[in-house]
Design goal:
Layout lengths: L12 H16 L9 H8 L3 H13 L3 E4 L3 E4 L24 E8 L3 H7 L7 E10 L2 E10 L15 H12 L6 E10 L2 H7 L6 E11 L2 E11 L5 E3 L5 E3 L5 H4 L1
Antiparallel strand pairs: 1-2, 3-4, 4-5, 5-8, 6-7, 7-8, 9-10
Length: about 250
């Protein structure tokens, strides 16, 4: 087999630096310790600050580092285990659901969500905002989009707004018979509102899990959940369920 053009491309300098920095994190630093400033690190390793930033960004993406507001760059703790899905299909808000409802409002969803729900582009839906914490740390934020047709008997008299309204919408949603759900995962960057809720900086790497819930042959709800990429590791099981497992020892073994 001949040599391809990519075979002749040398390893990027930032990638080699990332490996060197990773070894230094294992041998010289402890969890939560603040790294020296960029100027000192660049001087120590003899690289430009732009190269250093690329390496640090990659380590943050891999969950080795965290950028903390008002603190700086610190060594990240091992990823925590949080269940994203299970073998049994359940509606959001069902018994055992780890999410906490925060608010609910009626608004026009993003066009991509409207298309997934097969609603009109200017049609308002119920938007339930929920959050999730593990060991006291925020790990995910969710926007759950529910068309009015999925909760036809909902009344706004008893719970006009806030968390109570969100719970009322979820209770009505569970009256439908859940037939199936599909899920996709993609890497993204934290928007300003997500970053604030997750205690991250805008632009920090996140994992976006989008789930569509089907009932009576149509999409009855769409969930867009944003997880901290430095905290969560997603794996797929044989059943198709999506789980996040604890990864304490793996970091040292790699």
């Amino acid at each position: 087999m001949g040599t391809t053009q990519l075979d002749t491309v040398p390893e990027p300098k930032y990638w080699h630096l990332k490996t060197v920095l990773s070894e230094a994190l294992d041998s010289e630093f402890t969890v939560g310790e603040i790294l020296p400033n960029e100027r000192d690190l660049a001087a120590r390793f003899g690289v430009a600050r732009a190269t250093l930033r690329q390496a640090l960004e990659q380590l943050e993406l891999e969950g080795r580092l965290q950028r903390r507001r008002g603190v700086g760059t610190t060594v990240a703790p091992p990823r925590m285990g949080v269940a994203v899905g299970s073998e049994q299909h359940t509606w959001p808000g069902a018994v055992g659901d780890a999410w906490q409802p925060a608010d609910c409002a009626a608004a026009v969803p993003p066009l991509a969500v409207a298309q997934a729900l097969e609603t009109e582009p200017d049609e308002q839906v119920h938007i339930v905002r929920r959050s999730r914490t593990t060991h006291g740390q925020p790990v995910a934020a969710e926007l759950l989009y529910i068309p009015a047709a999925s909760v036809p008997d909902l009344s706004g008299i008893d719970a006009p707004s806030g968390a109570a309204r969100a719970r009322a919408v979820l209770r009505e949603l569970q009256r439908l018979g859940l037939e199936s759900q599909d899920r996709s995962v993609e890497l993204g960057s934290a928007r300003a509102d997500d970053a604030k809720e997750l205690d991250r900086l805008p632009g920090a790497p996140v994992l976006v899990v989008t789930t569509r819930f089907f009932a009576e042959g149509v999409a009855a709800a769409v969930s867009v959940a944003t997880y901290r990429a430095d905290t969560c590791r997603l794996t797929f099981g044989d059943s198709g369920g999506l789980e996040i497992h604890h990864d304490t020892a793996e970091r040292r073994a790699s």
